[in-house]
Task: structure prediction
Amino acid sequence: MTNTEDIQFTIRRAEPGDFEAVTRIFEGPKAIWGTLQLPYPSAEMWRKRLAEPLDGYYGLLACAGQEVVGELGLLTNPNRPRRKHAAKLFMCVRDDWQGKGAGTALMQAACDLADKWLNVERLELEVFTDNEPAVRLYKRYGFAIEGTLACFAYRDGQLVDVYSMARLRGAAASPGER
Amino acid sequence: METPKSTASISIRRLEPADYTDVYKIFCGPRAVWGTLQVPFPSLEVWRHRLAEPPEGSYFLAAVAGDEVVGQLGLETFPRHPRRRHAARLGMTVRDDWQGQGVGTALMQAAVDMADKWLNVSRLELEVYTDNEPAVRLYKKFGFVIEATLVAYAYRDGQYIDTYAMARLRRNT
Result:
């Protein structure tokens, strides 16, 4: 039994050279289950994605020692001036590292980045309604369920629902000032 | 009840690159800016560019009255998300002086037919400001339901404003 207290994760920016490690994350059936990815990930697709990230995208990695065990993306809206205060969050932890604190480490880093440096007042994400560990993690970081989007995506032979969740701060969190 | 400017005279066709001046005019209206994510003082050049190079998998429709485009609707599919192939996103705007005259209904009918009968979209989704009552009414008329309220989703005229996430599902397919 692993003592989760002992694991120290380092968070760093995802670099183009990390594409093989990221591809490996998406070789896991749980990783595919919890995201919008497909089985048989393409290393070439991940190479391109990491080499040419979207405008306003901040990719973070959780590492245990030298090993990349989780990834998180924060996508801001540089081309949508009226949504400059908002950002979308995506994350995934490698199957064999789930439940060991990598998600928490990533989420803590992402919230710090959003709150203290990017001044994001609305962080949003989508999560499959039956992905309980993920929903629990997001709630712990102050995300609230804003609604259920029915039949949002196809997964393992059927259409499944997602929760739309958001975490508000600053003026976005105080109705009086809105 | 307003006197309709004769809905019968509205026709729907594909929006073409050459329509950019008309689309620019639509977004010169404060009401159009209010109801969308656009900002005041639209750029003709931005609209020229946008219409010339629409995103992959998007279908833009124009509502035409006389020889003018007075409303536009975009249907965006997700070609890069194979697991969302059944879904599409909808956005629309009617020119300020043509609101409440059936333009939105004509556009929506065409979009729904296109989604249902040709693109086989079983989940149509959109976002709308919670206080845009005529739009919410139109969407409900076409079977959209409110799925979520996204708090402080966008900034509008000096303050944050909430939006509804709405969707229309075709269950029997």
Observations:
- The helical segments of chain B are 20-26, 30-35, 44-52, 103-118, 133-141.
- The two ends of chain B are 38 Å apart (CA to CA).
